[in-house]
Amino acid sequence: MKKGSGEDKNVLITSLDSLPGYRVVESKGFVMGSALDFIPADRVIYAFFASILDPKARHRLYSNFFKRLRHEALLRLSENAKRLGANAVMGATVRIWRSGYGMYEAYAYGTAVEVKKE
Question: What are the residue boundaries of the structural domains of the chain, listed by start?
Fold first, then answer.
């Protein structure tokens, strides 16, 4: 597993309330994971001026940043689910908000469950 990829082969994560092909054996409870990071001011300024020549430069900066932040929160979500003895998270949601100048927090949450393949 790559660091920060947000993928864990041992924990299934879905936004659905059920997992097709699986049945819930036991609910382990609420689980969450969060990640906090910032975009340095010099990168924001660089992206602003670079977008004059390349309109997609700014989009790439923010898109890659938020993708990495979201995956980090999901990775921590799956780690916390494993600590509870779960092998899946259902109803997963990820929220990202600004918490200061250039500072952003991603918060992933859902219900940790133990599932068995049908």
Answer: 12-117
Q: What is the pLDDT of residues 14-71, one digit of tens each?
A: 999 999 999 999 999 999 999 999 988 887 788 788 888 888 877 888 888 999 999 9
The pTM of the whole model exceeds 0.85: no
> What distance in Å separates the CA atoms of residue 7 and residue 65, rounded to the nearest whole number?
17
Q: Could you confirm whether domain 12-117 is CATH 3.40.50.2300?
A: no
CA distances, 1 to each of 8, 30, 45, 77, 102 (Å): 7, 24, 33, 15, 29
